[in-house]
Design brief:
218 residues; mainly alpha; elongated
Amino acid sequence: MSAARRFARSADLLDNPNIFEAEKEPLRSERSHELIEVTLAAVILSYTAVESVLNELFQEREHFAQPVWFPGLDDKIAAALHRAWSEGVEKLNPIDKSKVALAISSRSIDWNSGYPQEFLLLHALRNALVHHKPFSVEPNVTEDKLKKRLRNRFPLARIWAGKNVNYRWGGALGAGCALWAYRTAEGFQAEFFGALGCDYPRPWPLPQLGPAPLDLPA
């Protein structure tokens, strides 16, 4: 998560329309490409951080006889999670791993609102990036389904404000997306582990859901 936070901060610095408009080529082109790259990193790292901590959750009892990584986790639940891992949970995606863990602990979260809903969308964005396929939109004919799903989740890249730029991947991959991905991952972890009844160490305050200035701690 610290890496995702670092890249989100970098995206915010790069996504500055005042500097962008004052620059000349090739610096302007370089800035726009770097913004896409660091936003990609923030999205992938945010998603990967959630998957990594879920993997640790299922495997804690393989390494320790008592809660170490997840203080407060019930011993019976921890043992059941370890058994589930060896029975095939390892192959599941983070969403399904989360659902298995919640079922084992007889807990639940609302996947239709808040951070769980946002994480479903982060999952969709991550898949679109990692499993990229050529995509084009014909005006007045084709609508980008990913854009429709992510509409209003985060502001488009500020350097392209008022300009006719494609959603994939110029408009979407800006500071707004990077910050949204980071906040979604952090918020989902907090809600998931809260429902599970255990603490997961978090050295910084939980960011607020929704558009907000980039206020990530150093």
